[in-house]
Design a protein that fits this description.
Elements lengths: L1 H4 L20 H4 L9 E3 L5 E4 L6 H18 L6 H14 L4 H9 L6 H18 L9 H16 L7 H17 L3 H15 L3 H4 L3
Antiparallel strand pairs: 1-2
Helix pairs in contact: 4-6, 5-6, 6-7, 6-8, 7-8, 8-9
Length: 208
């Protein structure tokens, strides 16, 4: 591991609830949802890549190389559609990408093929789902209902986020939105899908 460590500055952040600790919200500000979390940062502290996979010297090296790749792409002015989608996916993983930012970025992408369109719709879906986690700010009640309406449209097209916390909040927001409209038939239909997804997690099912 030493050759890898010699190429970077190692930094460990310990999240605590002690008042006055510097950078107390760093974990959530950098998109953290579970411990431990590994990030590759640039010299200015901007997150470039999330470390996933084996925590070995080779694994760390691959994370660094991915960060360098993202940094190189971000510095280019002639980015392709694939480059732009990769940058959006990276921002989604390392921080909070808002639905509005993703929509504006989508307007600049131009024509997408079928595979690229699926990737972009997944970005929109996860941007809304992650906004419900409250990393940088909590949504107001009207904002949450609006997010729920957009997520319901994704659900009706068969799109559901995969990460556990995002999926749970995805269904919660949709159920809240349907409850606000007294749409009992669709509420029950979504509730059945919620139970099918989380039935083996008693603590989650307590909420319904």
């Amino acid at each position: 591991f030493s050759p890898v460590a010699n190429d970077v500055v190692l930094y460990v952040h310990i999240t605590s609830h002690v008042p006055g600790v510097p950078h107390a919200r760093l974990f959530t500000e950098k998109g953290g949802t579970a411990f431990p979390r590994f990030l590759i940062l640039d010299a200015q502290g901007q997150a470039l890549a999330v470390g996933k996979g084996p925590r070995t010297a080779d694994g760390f090296r691959s994370w660094i190389e991915r960060g360098e790749k993202i940094q190189a792409i971000a510095s280019r002015s002639d980015r392709t559609v694939e480059d732009q989608l990769l940058l959006l996916e990276t921002k989604l993983e390392v921080s909070d990408l808002t639905h509005e930012d993703a929509t504006r970025a989508g307007n600049r992408l131009g024509s997408l093929d079928e595979t690229q369109e699926r990737r972009y719709q997944k970005i929109l879906l996860r941007a809304d789902a992650r906004s419900l986690l409250g990393h940088t700010r909590r949504l107001t009640a009207p904002e949450r209902l609006e997010v729920g309406r957009r997520l319901l449209a994704h659900l009706e097209r068969g799109r559901i986020p995969e990460p556990f916390s995002e999926k749970m909040n995805f269904f919660d927001a949709i159920l809240d939105t349907l409850a606000s409209t007294n749409d009992l038939e669709r509420y029950q239909s979504v509730l059945d899908r919620y139970a099918a997804s989380f039935g083996r997690y008693p603590n989650v099912m307590k909420k319904i």
